[in-house]
Each structure stands twice: as C-alpha cells, then as structure tokens.
C-alpha cells in the first residue's frame, strides 16, 4: 500500500484519477465527485479543502474534508447531505478498507488536532481505523433519516397503509382538483424561475448562503442525466408548491420542499407529495424513498422506518489543548 496522498483542489483530484476519470462518478449521489465539488464551490468556497487518498492494489479510499481552522477538520457535508462516508472504489474487501482508513488516519494525525464527521450511517469501520491510528474517538447519535422500502408494492398498496388522517386530508383537500400537479424530468429556466418564486414565498424563504445556486447546479446535472423529478402544484398558472426529487440507483431522494405560505390552509404541498410518491412508486418503480435528514413530524405519516445518524469526533491525544473538548464530548455522549 502506498502512503496516503493529499489534494487541495478538485482539479488535483481529477488529475489524480488519471486513467479512471469516472471512478468517483459510479457511486451513490452523496459520494460522487460532482456532488462534492458543487457543495464546496457553492456552500464552502472560502473554506480550504483537504482530500486524502489512499490506495491498495486496484482499490482506492477517499476522504473529503474541510479545514475549518488550524488543525481542525470536518466532513465536507451540510444540511443537503443525507449521509457522509469515506468513499471506496475498486471493491476493496473489509481488510483492505480498514487498512486504507487506518493509513489515512495516521497521515491526518501528523497535522491535525481534531476531526468531526457527520452525518454517518455506520461509523464502526471508521472509528476502528481511527482508533488504531492513534485517535481518541467519541460517537454520538444525532438525528435520523426516514426511509420507505417498497418491497415490490404498488402505490395503491402503499397508500392503503398510510394513516387515516393523511388519507382523509388528501381526499378532502383534493376534491375538485384545486391544483394542477405536474412532474418534470427536465429543468428549464422558466421552471427554475417558478421554483425560486415559490421558495421566496415559503416559510423556508431564507435559503442558506449558496443554497439556491447549489440546488440549481444539482437540478441541472440530474436533469441532463434524466434523474430529476421537479414537481409543481399550480393554481391559475401560478406555482404555489414545489418539490425537488432525484432518482439515484433505484432510490428516490427528496431534497427540498417548499410551498407558498398563503396557501397553507389548502395543503398544496401535501397534494403534490401524493402525486410525487405515486409517480416514484408506479412509474419510476423505485425500491426505496429517502426523506433525508431531520425528524420533522410529518415524515412519519409518509415513511415507515427511521435510521439513526451518528456524529464521530476524533481527538489527537498529542494535542493537549483538545483534551477539554474531548472530555466534554465524552460526557455529552454518556448523558445522551
């Protein structure tokens, strides 16, 4: 195994991929190079990038990190990221994965005092490797994701199993077809203008810095690949609710919802969700729907399973100034 290498720009990462330029494209959305590059460009442009790369045989491991402050690193992820993890290519076996992670942990320990990783679905492998590399690690459960596994169900079967209050709401609010519901797999400038207009009238009207540019970049990329599902509820031609979904390897990902708060009482967002779920299940034939991070109460009506998300903080024992923070994190983990 070669010693880990480090890159500080995505141009350097692409050069390092050499004869395998697509290696970081044939992975899930949140591990893809274009996702990481866009997230950094739009949401973390002023934060230095550190990408650590390890190889063993024909396999590779990658860690995409942000250098928030001197000696402190954090996962390249934010509220748009459903999950974060080291990215592996070349199908390494478990022993090779652990070896590459351990090597990267040793490499990072030489220059870093503290690292934080969130949101993690499964942290056992990463914690083991960092521990073997000499880091103290603390694991804390923080929030979750809501999932729906279809197991071959059609929409009618799925819908019969929803809570009565949700089915009754859709039936009452949908009488007379008060809204025109459309779902688009191609993005156009006019559709994006409508999306932005709904967002501006939504209770979520303050989008985090860089958020709209990041979402437009995502919508354009997924549109070009045929994976975009951009839904609208309209009244009299005016968009009053919108949802941005994508399809990734048979999984429908719900990225962003918004509706005009002036229409709260008429539930255009709920009616649009009904149409979006039906389209994903009966037309896209997805195997799973993922509602993303956050424990919003309404998600439980639509989904059937919650998985916990984990934060791992790693402290370098040599950095004495980090000991108090390590103790506080350990106490927080103990008291929940």
Overview in brief:
35% of the residues lie in helices and 30% in strands. It is of the alpha+beta class and 336 residues long.
Characterise the protein shown here.
This protein has 2 domains: 163 residues, Aminopeptidase; 136 residues, Aminopeptidase (3-Layer(aba) Sandwich). It contains 11 helices and 13 strands. Strands 1, 2, 3, 4, 5, 6, 7, 8, 9, 10, 11, 12 and 13 form a 13-stranded mixed beta sheet that branches. Strand 3 and strand 4 form a beta hairpin. Helix 2 packs antiparallel against helix 8. The longest helix has 16 residues. The mean pLDDT is 94. This is GNAT family N-acetyltransferase.
For the structure shown, list the relevant keywords.
single chain; 336 residues; alpha+beta; Aminopeptidase; 2 domains; 13-stranded mixed beta sheet; 13 strands; 30% strand; elongated
**Number of separate helices:** 11
Largest sheet: 13 strands, mixed
Q: Structurally, how many domains make up the residues?
A: 2
Helix and strand string, N-terminal first?
EHHEEEEHEHEHHEHHEEEHEHEH
Kindly name the structural category. Answer: alpha+beta
> Could you report the average pLDDT, rounded to the nearest whole number?
94
Q: Strand portion, in percent?
A: 25-35%
The CATH class of the largest domain is identified as: Alpha Beta
């Amino acid at each position: 195994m070669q010693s880990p290498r480090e890159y500080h720009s995505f141009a350097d990462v692409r050069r390092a991929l050499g004869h395998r330029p697509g290696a970081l494209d044939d992975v899930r959305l949140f591990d893809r190079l274009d996702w990481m590059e866009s997230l950094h460009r739009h949401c973390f442009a002023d934060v230095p990038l550190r990408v650590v790369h390890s190889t063993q045989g024909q396999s590779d491991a990658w860690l995409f990190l942000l250098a928030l402050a001197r000696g402190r690193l954090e996962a390249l992820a934010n509220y748009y990221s459903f999950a974060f993890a080291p990215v592996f290519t070349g199908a390494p076996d478990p022993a090779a994965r652990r070896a590459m992670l351990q090597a990267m942990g040793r490499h990072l320990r030489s220059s870093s005092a503290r690292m934080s990783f969130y949101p993690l679905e499964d942290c056992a492998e990463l914690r083991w490797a960092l521990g073997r590399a000499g880091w103290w690690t603390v694991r804390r459960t923080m929030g979750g994701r809501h999932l729906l596994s279809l197991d071959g169900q059609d929409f009618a079967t799925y819908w019969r199993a929803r809570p009565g209050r949700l089915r009754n709401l859709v039936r009452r609010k949908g009488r007379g077809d008060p809204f025109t519901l459309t779902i688009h797999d191609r993005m156009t400038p006019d559709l994006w203008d409508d999306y932005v207009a709904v967002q501006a009238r939504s209770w979520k009207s303050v989008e985090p810095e860089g958020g709209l540019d990041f979402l437009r970049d995502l919508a354009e990329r997924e549109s070009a690949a045929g994976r975009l599902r951009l839904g609208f509820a309209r009244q009299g031609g005016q968009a009053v609710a919108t949802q941005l979904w994508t399809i990734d390897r048979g999984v429908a990902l719900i990225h962003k919802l918004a509706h005009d708060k002036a229409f709260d009482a008429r539930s255009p967002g709920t009616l649009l969700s009904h149409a979006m779920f039906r389209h994903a299940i009966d037309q896209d034939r997805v195997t799973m729907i993922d509602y993303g991070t956050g424990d919003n109460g309404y998600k439980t009506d639509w989904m059937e399973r919650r998985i916990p998300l984990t934060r791992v903080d790693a402290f370098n024992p040599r950095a004495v100034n980090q000991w108090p923070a390590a103790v506080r994190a350990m106490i927080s983990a103990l008291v929940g």
